[in-house]
Specification:
139 residues, mainly beta, Immunoglobulin-like, three-stranded antiparallel beta sheet, 1 helix
Length: 139
């Protein structure tokens, strides 16, 4: 019984030591932020009601320290959608050069009409948001 108790104490102690081990050898996300959409690919500018299409939003990132995190899709009203890509930055040293990556947004309309998509492209010199606009007609 004494041996079981000693082994149990050693097991608990070694588990505590392992869980307190500080391992900083991995990338850590240090920031998430909206990043401008450089370009958009919308396969169909006219589509049928009930059909789903995938839009691709592309942004440019610095190698080894940035990448696509997610996207934000807001209903401004029944026919206007505002979309932005979000990027992450890590604690890794940034490499030289850039690469293009992006997010995929599925759009399945629930009513006919013209939908306006506003893709965030950053801010102008006065600090106002700027957008790349595309229209999709749903019949």
């Amino acid at each position: 019984m004494k041996n079981v108790f000693i082994l149990s104490v050693l097991a608990v102690f070694s588990t505590m030591l392992m869980s307190c081990h500080d391992n900083d050898d991995y990338s850590e996300i240090t920031n998430v932020y909206a990043t401008k959409v450089d370009s958009v690919h919308i396969p169909m500018d006219t589509m049928a009601l009930g059909v789903t299409q995938e839009m691709k939003l592309y942004s440019t990132f610095t190698r080894t320290c940035e990448g696509i995190y997610s996207y934000d899709y807001q209903y401004t009203n029944d026919s206007v959608r505002t979309v932005a890509n979000f990027a992450y930055k890590t604690n890794d040293v940034c490499g030289s050069g850039t690469y293009v990556d992006g997010s995929r947004v599925n759009f399945k309309p629930t009513k006919t009409g013209t939908y306006t998509f506003k893709f965030w492209t950053g801010k102008d010199t006065s600090g106002a948001n700027t957008f790349l606009e595309r229209k999709v007609v749903v019949e």
